[in-house]
Amino acid sequence: MTRNSTIHGLGAGLLLLGLAGSASAQDFDYVDFASVAGLTLVGNASQTGNVLRVTPSAGTQTGAAYHTTPVRVAQGFDTRFRFQMSALGGGGADGMTFVIHNDPRGVAALGSGGGELGYGALPGAPVGLAIANSLVLELDTYLSGAEGDLSANTLSLHTNGPGSNDNDESYSLGQVAPLQNLSDGAIHEVRLQQSAGTLNVFLDDMNTPLISVPYDIEMGGQWAGGGAVGGLTLQADGTAYVGFTAATGGAWEAHDVLSWSWSSNGGPGTSFCFGDASGLICPCGNLAAAGEGCGNSMGLGGALGSQGSASVAAGTFELQGSQLPPNRPALFVQANTHLNNGNGTLAGDGLRCTGANALNLGVVWIDLAGGATSPPGILALGGVSAGETKIYQLIYRDPLGPCGTGYNGTNALEVSFTP
């Protein structure tokens, strides 16, 4: 069955400041696959009982399964899936992947089989067969020394930015040979999390990542072997396709997904006060994309989202800024009202969105990937009670900003809190 909620000197200076659209989370939860409603199956993928079988245990199989509707990834995400690789033949091969992509083929995207794991392309394959504009987590169960695999049991994150992805480890952001045997027939769980400029991969232990690398889905990062790689080119609303690929060749195994959940950052709250000319024009014409603040020195608009729960009792709510200038201080601000019917007023290189009773929640340092996370216990810091609605914004230093004032602001977020 499916549970689907779609269902389917900074401080003083900033305090002197007084201090429509919506960017909502897109969540779904397949507790099993008795129904595959909302999914698109490609190639040899099938529904088998309560299981999503990306490829069966047979030679020369290639399959993919995608959430049919793109989901928001621009401000981060948290996804988990339980998988089982079993019924090995010829020693077992080749493995499966979790993929985020904006390939032109959409939900029809499928690469070569065998060691290409359904996302890469074999030599001599037609141009465009490899899944382009993608981030892939490999669960690789076949050792290919020519491609730089650590072992026949490897987790590895692959991307070529907006270009065609490749299973060669020179395209890896980070890899590890886990102690767990991925194809031992047991049920394992993977968690892939993008938060505040860091990409984390967990296996079975959902608290301690096996891979943790600085990487932003839009801004990119560094390959493990050296060299910068760009981020993905997302759809206009910050979304991309998500799902699985798998493949077999001269050896084989069944690649099964038993459950899958997805949560987009942007969590609780409604985003407003944008630098896209939907309200005020930014101070020096420094427009940005929908859902962002005015343009900054990174050529982007600073974005504010959230994750966790709006429940005060749960205590998991946090704010997350992204697309910010690295190594600069930033200030989280809370207020009771918004300004100018939610359009804000001009301030610095951006917009001031917070109104009455503005409260400084603390200065943080923007990380190397342009991310910033609110201080711990933000609801306690803000004195938030159940039933209240608060307005949040992140103000940040930007000495090289386009208007020359030295600071800017993200979009704002309005959150209504529950018990």
Characterization of the model:
- The protein has 419 residues and is an all-beta fold.
- The protein has 2 domains: 163 residues, no CATH class; 237 residues, Jelly Rolls (Sandwich).
- The protein contains 2 helices and 29 strands.
- The strands form 5 sheets. Strands 1, 2, 4, 5, 8, 13, 14, 15, 16, 17 and 19 form an 11-stranded antiparallel sheet that branches. Strands 3, 6, 7, 9, 10, 11, 12 and 18 form an 8-stranded antiparallel sheet that branches. Strands 20-29-28-23-26 form a 5-stranded antiparallel sheet.
- The radius of gyration is 22 Å and the shape is elongated.
- The chain starts with a strand and ends with a strand.
- The relative contact order is 0.17.
- The N terminus is likely disordered.
